[in-house]
Amino acid sequence: MQRLHARYPFLAAARESVATEAVDLATVVEQDRAVVDRARQRVITALEDGTVGEPAHEPRIELLSYPVARVLVSMVGERVLVRKYARGEAATAYDRFTADMADTTELKSVSSTGLELTDLLTEFDLQDDVRETPAGDGYRIDVGTYLPLAEDMWEDEWRLVNRPLDGGEVPVDEDELLALLREAIRGRIEDGLPFEVPETIASALEDDADEIRAILADLDLTQDIDTVVPDLFPPCMKALLDQVQKGEHLPHHSRFAITAFLTSIGMSTDEIVDLYRVNSSFGEEMTRYQTDHIRGDSSPTEYSAPACSTMQSYGDCVNKDDLCERIPHPMAYYEKRLEEAEDDDLEDWREDEQSASGD
């Protein structure tokens, strides 16, 4: 098994390598603990850190841990886990192939362990859809290819309205193209998850799946909440909600963050749309579409609010308090505050709004 395949297990050639070796996955999970341990680590690290961690030293273990990790994700079956796992794998792949492309040493062995841009374009059948500009200072990508790749990129700069579309092509620089390829990888990894796991394999992995379930529960990303108490919101979400209520313009990533948070705590699309009406640039149709998309009603993915690390990277992490220092996710913060609150303090904001409108 090649090191390249272990480094990039999402490649079609990597799958073919496993098939050629006639690997029996049931035998692997029963007899090869090193593979299972690395697979479990891939999933847990994706949940906690947004990557899949350090690779195993032995290429065989690293490569086989990938299909076993997909099995574990499927056994747990939570959409939030599928999403976070796929993003963790894609983030690790991105770090690796950008490092490959930045390595200009004469001694590097690209043919055996690294990927070049042309390799990735070919892998995803994009070689005819992406063209280098005549001046060699960037690339142009067919709009029909760009849109699905950029669909989950919520920053303003990825919106088609902010791109100088010309002749059905979207201009991107090299960094942006590599980010789009990361999304292609994420889509491939997420595709088909979760799937039905044969009992012979599932029984051998039940303890490992239970450990992942416990960690997922501790992160408080899958609990159902239907209580809206803004006083208990994490500081970041309080600040964003305050801006929404003042009618201030929010960057796209900030709007996504507060909308995803509000959907996660039980607010309906109608309720969220009403919040945005005070904005001078309010458009009901677009606001409703974006909210339904985040909720998963008009898309295959239900989005959760960004983790604290993501909020920090976009400058949305503000007014941190002591609890923020111990909590990795805004939802975990809110659930903790709900747990600690007295019942008398848990008056749902929506009930107050209804009372006010009734008066």
Automatic annotation (TrEMBL):
Molecular function in Gene Ontology: 4 iron, 4 sulfur cluster binding; DNA-directed RNA polymerase activity; metal ion binding
UniProt keyword list: 4Fe-4S, DNA replication, Iron, Iron-sulfur, Metal-binding, Primosome
Chain positions recorded as [4Fe-4S] cluster binding sites: C236, C308, C317, C324
Cofactor note: Binds 1 [4Fe-4S] cluster.
One of the protein's GO biological processes: DNA replication, synthesis of primer
SUPFAM superfamilies linked: PriB N-terminal domain-like (SSF140914)
Pfam families assigned to the protein according to its UniProt record, in alphabetical order: DNA_primase_lrg, DNA_primase_lrg_N
Gene Ontology CC: primosome complex
Keyword 4Fe-4S: yes
Keyword Iron-sulfur: yes
Residues in DNA primase large subunit C-terminal domain copies: 227-326
Domain of life where this protein originates: Archaea
Cofactor: [4Fe-4S] cluster
Protein family according to the UniProt entry: Belongs to the eukaryotic-type primase large subunit family.
Subunit structure: Heterodimer of a small subunit (PriS) and a large subunit (PriL).
Function of the protein: Regulatory subunit of DNA primase, an RNA polymerase that catalyzes the synthesis of short RNA molecules used as primers for DNA polymerase during DNA replication. Stabilizes and modulates the activity of the small subunit, increasing the rate of DNA synthesis, and conferring RNA synthesis capability. The DNA polymerase activity may enable DNA primase to also catalyze primer extension after primer synthesis. May also play a role in DNA repair.
Protein name: DNA primase large subunit PriL
Species, as recorded: Natrinema hispanicum
Gene: priL
